[in-house]
Amino acid sequence: MADELSHLDERGAARMVDVSGKPETAREAAAEALVLMQPATLRLILEGAVPKGDVIATARIAGIMAAKRTPDLIPLCHPLPISGVSVDIEPADDRTLRIRAVVRTTGRTGVEMEALTAAAVAALTIYDMCKAAEKGIRIEGVRLLEKRGGKSGHWLADSAPQSPSR
Predict the structure, then answer these.
(1) At a CB cut-off of 8 Å and minimum separation 6, what does 5 contact?
(2) Where are the beta strands (DSSP E) in the chain?
(3) What are the backbone angles phi and psi of residue 149, rounded to the nearest 5°?
(4) Nearest residue to 162 (alpha-carbon basis) of 117, 119, 112
(5) How far apart are CA 63 and CA 114, in angstroms?
(6) b or e along 54-65 (b: 16 or more beta carbons within 10 Å of the residue's beta carbon)?
(7) CA 13 from chain center: how many Å?
(8) Distance CA 97, CA 63 (A)
(9) How many CB atoms lie within 10 A of CB 119?
(10) 128 among known catalytic residues
């Protein structure tokens, strides 16, 4: 099993993967998260009427900061020189905000974890800023959408959009 899981050594103990022998290549990953809420809560966000402030701008900044701090949160992630992070947050329907995070680097390992962390923390920030208005907000569908670069090349999740469960 240790052969299949690169974060385990020959004895099955956790280790940080040695990427020093891998070439540096341009790498990019995109991830998404969905935040489901009542239509009235989404209206408050879109109208800028949430008492804690601009929810979307704050969540965007939180996602960017989270991408940069991923190795502080995920124990075996490599610290990477991130060259770019974007976090887009838009309504998917009258109950859902869709977060899309894209992270770029030139390095020896990918930025999938940074993109996933950015999307998840942006979603958590939306919850935090809106919990006084609605406790039942749900975060769902945190997933990798696409990755480029490295030995495995380009990977794309199924093209069908993930629909929020209700």
Answers:
(1) none
(2) 25-36, 82-91, 96-107, 138-148, 155-156
(3) 100, 170
(4) 119
(5) 9
(6) ebbebbbebbbb
(7) 27
(8) 14
(9) 32
(10) yes
Asked whether residue 80 is marked as a ligand-binding residue, the answer is no
Judge whether 1 is annotated as a binding position: no
Residue 8: per-residue pLDDT: 78
Note whether 91 and 46 are within 8 A (CB).
Answer: yes
Range 150-153 contact pairs with CB under 8 angstroms and sequence separation of 24 or more: 150/22, 150/25, 150/27, 150/109, 150/110, 151/22
Distance CA 120, CA 123 (A): 5
76 assigned ligand-binding residue: yes
Q: Measured between alpha carbons, how far is 54 from 31 in angstroms, rounded to an integer? A: 23
Query: Exactly one of 3, 72, 128, 158 is catalytic; which is it?
Result: 128
Chain centroid, CA 147 distance in Å: 12
d(CA 162, CA 166): 13
- DSSP alpha helix (H) spans, 6-153: 39-46, 55-73, 112-130
Which domains are assigned to the chain?
A: 37-150 (3.30.70.640)
Q: Tell me: the pLDDT tens digits for 71-130? A: 999 998 999 999 999 999 999 999 999 999 999 999 999 999 999 999 999 999 999 999
Residue 9 pLDDT level (bands cut at 50, 70, 90): confident
